[in-house]
Specification:
transmembrane, transmembrane helix, about 70% helix, F0F1-type ATP synthase assembly protein I, single chain, mainly alpha, about 170 residues, cell membrane, globular
Amino acid sequence: MLPTQVEAGGLYPYNAAARSLGVWAGHSGRTDELLINATPSRQRRPQSIARPPVLSRLLLFWLLLFIAAGGIWLFEIRLGLSVLWGIAVSALPGACFAWYSFRRLGGARQSGAAVQAIYRAETIKFLLTAALFAAVFMQVKEIHLAAFFIAFAGAHLGASLVTARTLARHQG
């Protein structure tokens, strides 16, 4: 340590210079509060990225959609089942994507792994969606196509909006 730093009572040269001036913008005259926030911290722990509650909010959204489809089913069975199938074809791959991509966020050092997990999750979602579409068209004999596609598109768009809103609130 240099003698001027010891005399000024600080370990860093900019603390010694600031204390020798005696007046700082907003300084009340106490030397112990000078540049306390400007001194570098020696013991910083790596921050981990908190997991956003995307999956739980999506599950709640899809539960509400399934309840609404059940209400439609009570009045017209074919229409209600078509809406249920449309929501299911959107919800199951979306739930797999949300679970797989957001389960292991570990911090900035693992950002490459997080991006790779998102790519894998999107591939799984795409393949599962295609398989569910094929299964519905091959196995379900009486389906109302307009209701099926409107339910699928609505559930998919709604899930995208819920996800975007959840992530925006989580960041800010």
